[in-house]
Amino acid sequence: MEENMTETASAQPEKTPITSPSTQASVAAEQMDMPASKLMRFGPENPLRLDEGTELAPWQIAYETYGELNADKTNAILVCHALTGDQYVASENPVTGKPGWWSMMVGPGQPVDTDKYFVICANVLGGCLGTTGPACTNPETDEVYGLDLPVVTIGDMVRSQAKLVEALGIETLFAVVGGSMGGMQVLQWASAYPEKVFAAVPIATGPRHSSQNIAFHEVGRQAVMADPDWCHGQYAKEGKRPLKGLSVARMAAHITYMSDESLHNKFGRNLQDRSAITFGFDADFQIESYLRHQGMTFVDRFDANSYLYVTRAMDYFDLAAAHGGKLANAFLHSDTRFCVMSFTTDWLFPTSESKDIVRALNAAGANVSFVEIESSRGHDAFLLDEPELFKTMRGFLTGAAKARGIPAPSNGD
Amino acid sequence: MTKLDLSDVRGDHRILCDFVAPGSRVLDIGCGTGELLELLIDTRGVDGRGFDTSQKGVNEAVARGLSVVQGDADNDLAAYPDDAFDYAILSHTLQATMDPKQVLEQLLRIGKKVVVSFPNFGHWRNRMQLLFKGRMPVTDYLPYEWYDTPNIHFCTIRDFVALSEEVHAKVIKAEALDARGQRIGFNAPWWVWNLIGDQAVFLLERK
Q1: What gap in Å lies between CA B199 and CA B140, rounded to an integer?
Q2: How far apart are CA A19 and CA A89, in angstroms?
Q3: What is the DSSP letter of A74?
Q4: Which of B55, B59, B106 to probe by mutation at the A interface, max A CB count within 10 Å?
Q5: Which of A36, A84, A151, B62 has a CA between 20 and 30 Å from the CA of residue A388?
C-alpha cells in the first residue's frame, strides 16, 4: 500500500513501533491463514473461476465491516484497497498496530460515514492478510502455495469480492470506492456488475496499467527474484525470506508514490545525522535513510510472493482491451453514478488517465462527475489529509444517497 | 420536486426552467458551480449533468452532489453520443466559445432539444456606445473591456436567428429579457427585440 508519509520532516521512524519488527513478522505470518478479522470460507462446492482459466477451491476471503447494514440492505459501501493495503481500512492493523489506512475517510462522521453506511473492506485475492494468496497454506498439499497459486487478475479479485458480497446477502452495493489498484477494482466492478453498483468512486487510477507503470513493477519483481533467499519462490519451505529484495522493491515503488515537489519539500538534499558527506555509500542523505526505513518496515508486514502476485494483477489490467479496444464499451448502458478523482502531481496515474475514463463514460452516456484536486503530494495524496478529497467524497455520496433514497450524512463541513 | 420561490432566480434561469419538461435528461454546458442544474433538479426533477471549463467551479458543484465534469464546449462535446439528452443547455456561454457554429451543431446532435441563452449585442445601448463613443460597449451586463473579456464571439438576436437557420435548427420558442432580467411580455418582430432585448433565450430543435 502507498502508506501514509509521516507529516513530520523527520526521516526517522516517527515513534516506537508497538511490536518489534521480528514480532511483527511472526504476527504477519499468523495472519496469512487465520486473520484477526472476519473470514468467509468457500468450499469445493463454491469454486472461484479465475481469468487464467482454472478454478480455485477451496478458497477464503478476509474482511472487516463497519457500521450497520440497513433493513433494505441498500447502504453498503465496498472499499477496495490499494496494492499492499488490507481489510483494516478504519481499524487498527493487527500486524503494525497502526490505525486503519483510510481512517480519515472512513468512520463515524467521516466522509464515508459509518453512522449511515455499512462499510465492507476485504483483503484482495493474492494478498497476505487472510485472503487466499501465495503465502497461504494450500489445503490440497498442506504446504504454502508459493508460486503454485495461479496468477490472479483485478477481475479475479473483484469476482471474489462479488461472492463475498453475495454471501453477505447484499444484492446491490450503494457504492464501491477505492484509490490506485483499489480504483481499478472500482472500474472493474462497475463494468462487470453494473446492476450491482449504484455509485462508483475511482480515485487516482487508470483504465489500464501503463507501460511505465509496468516497468516500475518489473524492477520491483526483479529485485525480489534476485534475492538469493527468494529460492525460486520456495523460501517458506527453505525457512528463508527474501527481505533485501522485497525491501528494494518497496523503495523503488515508494518513489513513484510521491512527487518531486513533495520529496524536495520533505528532504531536499539534507543530510541524515551528520554535518558533511562521508564519501561512501552509507545513507548520507535523509531521503536515503527514509527509503531504507520504508523498505525495512514493509518486509515485516508483507509477503514477497504476494508482492509479485498483486503487482502482476495491476500490470494485466486493461479495461479497454477486455472490451474490444474501446473503453466506452466497458460502461455501455450503465446506470451507475461515477465520481472520478485525480491529483495534479500524481505521475503514476496522471489526470490524463482519469480524463480517459471520463471521456469513455460520457461516450457511454453514463452519469459522471470528475474532480481534479490540486495537491503537491503526488499519488499518495489520496491517502493523506486532502480537504478537497474529503469534501468531494462527502458531497458525491450525499447526492447519491438522496437519489438512492437512503439517509445521507449531514454536510459536516 | 419541491415548489420553490423563484422570485430571486435570475431571469434567464427562470425562463430556462419553463422551457424544460419535468423529469427529462439535461446537459448544462458551462454550468459554473451548478446553480442552474440544482434549480432544474429541484423544480423540474430532471436527471441533470453538467460541465464547465473551471475545475474550481466543478469541484464545488460535485461537492454539492451534482454530476459535473471539467470540460469545454469547443473540445469535449464530441465525446457525447447522439440524442444522449432531452435538452442540451448553453446558458450565457455561446459568446465565449471558439467556434459557436460548431458548438451549436454539436448541441443539436446531443440534445433532442437545445436551449441557448445569450446577451444581445444588438441592444440599443450597445449600439449607442459604439455610435457615439466609438468604443466597444461596457455595460452592467457586459462588464468587460474588449481586451480582457471571456466573450470572444458576440452576436445579436438576429445573428442568432440566422445562425439557427444555417445549422438547420427550428426555433420553437424564444423570449427576450429586459435590463432587469424580466420577460418582455409582448410579441414583436425580431428587429424590435434585437433593439430592446438585453438578453434572449431560445428553444431549438433539429429541422
Answers
A1: 12
A2: 20
A3: -
A4: B59
A5: A84
Q: Is A4 exposed, middle or buried (0-12, 13-18, 19+ CB in 10 A)?
A: middle
**DSSP, res B44:** H
Partner-chain contact A398 B65, CB within 8 Å: yes
Whether A379 is catalytic: yes
Q: What is d(CA A47, CA A32) in angstroms, rounded to the nearest whole number? A: 20
Q: How long, in residues, is chain B?
A: 207
Task: Give the residue among A246, A241, A243 at the shortest CA–CA distance from A223.
Answer: A246
Alpha-carbon gap: B58 to the closest alpha carbon of chain A (Å): 7
Q: Which residues of A touch B69 (CB under 8 A)?
A: 340, 358, 362, 368-370
Regions of chain B with pLDDT less than 50:
1-3
* Chain B residues near any Cβ of chain A (below 8 Å): 47, 49, 55, 58-59, 62-70, 76, 79-81, 84
Q: How much helix, strand and coil, in percent to the nearest 5, is found in chain B? A: 35, 25, 40
Q: What's the distance, Cα to Cα, between the start and end of chain A in Å?
A: 28
CB neighbour burial string for A72-94, b if at least 16 within 10 angstroms, e if fewer: eebbbbbbbbbbbbbbbbbbebb
| pLDDT score for B6 | 61
Please tell me the distance in Å from A388's CA to the nearest CA on chain B.
Answer: 8
Q: Could you tell me if the ipTM is greater than 0.85?
A: no
CB pairs under 8 A between A and B: 64
Largest CA distance in chain A: 67
Chain A residues with beta carbon closer than 8 angstroms to that of B109: none
A106 confidence band (pLDDT: 50, 70, 90): very high
Cis peptide before A13 (omega within 30 of 0): no
List A284, A315, A379, A380, catalytic entry: A379
AA letter at A130: G
Q: With H, G, I as helix, E, B as strand and everything else as coil, classify residue B29.
A: strand
- Could you give the residue ranges of the DSSP H alpha helices within A168-268? 181-192, 211-226, 235-238, 243-257, 260-266
- Alpha carbon A287 to its chain centroid, in Å, reads 24
What mean pLDDT do residues A337-353 have?
Answer: 97
- Catalytic residue check, A180: yes
Of B64, B68, B79, the CB nearest to A359: B79
